[in-house]
Amino acid sequence: xxxxxxxxxxxxxxxxxxxxxxxxxxxxxxxxxxxxxxxxxxxxxxxxxxxxxxxxxxxxxxxxxxxxxxxxxxxxxxxxxxxxxxxxxxxxxxxxxxxxxxxxxxxxxxxxxxxxxxxxxxxxxxxxxxxxxxxxxxxxxxxxxxxxxxxxxxxxxxxxxxxxxxxxxxxxxxxxxxxxxxxxxxxxxxxxxxxxxxxxxxxxxxxxxxxxxxxxxxxxxxxxxxxxxxxxxxxxxxxxxxxxxxxxxxxxxxxxxxxxxxxxxxx
Length: 267
Description:
mainly alpha
């Protein structure tokens, strides 16, 4: 994670790229997700009990904070895809919309929006008998199940990022026709390839994880059916592992893509 951030901030062209700024924000947000996830697993080792079932403050903060970092990360991917489409567009009025100042403002606005959005989660999370830390309000639980998971964590980031990444890819294929310096052309191609590849892996990993979460919340498990319990635990473990692999694959792709760009830049 640290090496990827260093590579993203090392080069001047990268520093001036708005898409690179969004990807740096995503890296920082993903660090937050990984830290919270690591603390969640570490608590099982340090304590003979689940703190979220005993300490109310832990219950109310853990999931909302992890969700906050996740939403900021997904928003950054969407913004990066949109900006890459704008910056590679041949229309000047669209290209002029790609500015670092606008990116900083949009990032600040998105952080404020998601912080406000997650305040109700802190309110409605509680320690419930038999279920542990969960949402106690039925209406808000329906919002979480039918809007937050499928739309904010599924349809919106997958659809938006995929759409604008494909448009950006189409733009860079026509860069050779424009009077653009070779170095800048190589940079746009490599950054667009990185954003597109990032979106593809995000779609694959996020879709399975969201589907598993929706299934777990909407289907009641028969505690007497051992086979069903084993299958559900296997799918949940696989979806979580795939989600964690998303971070590792993303960092590998960043390093690979930028190493190729640096070689082109030096040569």
